[in-house]
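INTERNAL AUDIT FORM
Audit reference: QA-55
Scope: verify that the stored structure record matches its stored sequence.
Auditor: D.O.
Record contents follow.
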Amino acid sequence: MNRFLLISRVQLLLISALLIAAVAVACGSAEDESLVASGGDDATPQRIRMVESTQIFTEADVKAIGWKGQKDFVLDYPGATTFKWGYMNQTEVGVLIYASAEEAKTLGVAAAEDQTFRREGDNQARDGDFTDRIQCRRPVGSSAVKANTGFPSKSFSASYLEPESEGSDDVLPATCTTRFPTYNDYTVVGNVVFMCEGDEGNLLDPSTNCEKVAEWLMPVE
């Protein structure tokens, strides 16, 4: 009887240890996953990352990892000291820089939510002048990206810039009847918000830029 009790106690101790280990692993996973939030739905996934950093990054820091800024955004971005779209690894990345990480997590996230918003049902940008960068699907099947017109008006009768003419000022007149937000994923690293086009320009594909940008900005030594 004593031996049976001893074995039972040992088994209970082993089971308790395994449960504690399982809880610890689960908590660790939850902590890691807290940096990544998934939005959208199964058909239209969105990947949102929040990476804490006490470092204050500048536009020069972002350019140092390969981002090539093009022009300021057309819409207003309260609190942002830098608000530009550009390219990194041949896909478009919008950058918003704030004076503090707190502003990036509040004002910056609100801006990113607006710029990545997709209407339920058709995934298009909301009606009105709320989305700064859009992909325009034309009837012939080609696509274009909204260009900064330089005019005060934010009307969507603006010209559109072909993606192949990266960085070019040549614009083509177009009427955009099918409008998709250029950016789907976004990542906040300290005081910087990165809004990313999907890999290879595919609107709903994951963005390697948004996935890796924190590693590039803060390499482990």
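Auditor finding: record pair retrieved intact. The two ends are 59 Å apart (CA to CA).
Action required: none
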